[in-house]
Protein: Putative NAD(P)H nitroreductase
Organism: Labrys neptuniae
Amino acid sequence: MDAIELLKTRRSVPPAMLSAPGPDAAQLETLLAIATRVPDHGKLHPWRFVIYQGAAREKAGQVVYDAFMAACPDADEAVRKKESTRFTLAPLVIGVVSTAANHVKIPLWEQELSAGAVCENLVIAAHALGFGASWLTGWMAYDERVLAKLGIGSHEKLAGFVHIGTPREAVPDRPRPKLEDLVTYYGQNAGN
């Protein structure tokens, strides 16, 4: 598939629709190498990865489930089930961690945007390799106690968990916004 068609057809695949096989070791290395090819003002590489695969997915899922149950012990069974499978639906979950820090020249915002670009490159690269992917956060991405147990430092932020696997079925595309609702040509509209 050519690059334009690849970009036009990329869409998120919910983790519940992903299954094995996931990327093998060589494909994972390819995914991570592509993920790092993003704009990075100052060459700071203000991001890193935490890989959850195999039994590590169950361990991470238990951390999330335990924290959820401690906060919401009266949750119904459907919600409990959702929380218990956060890391086990897809065969691979990659945590993209923003390590952005104050810098004399490079604004924090630009470093954080670079981490977001890493997530986007991951989902595009997964699509290019024939996998489905979904970039998610969820409540646990903002819970410092959970993040500490998932390998993320107190000085770091989670840009997202990217779930990768083989789609069980074709996923229909969602409606996309109309470009005319999003684009303004400077100097051609009132107030410019």
Remarks:
- The chain has a mean pLDDT of 95.
- The radius of gyration is 18 Å.
- Helices lie at 3-9, 25-35, 55-71, 77-84, 108-128, 144-149.
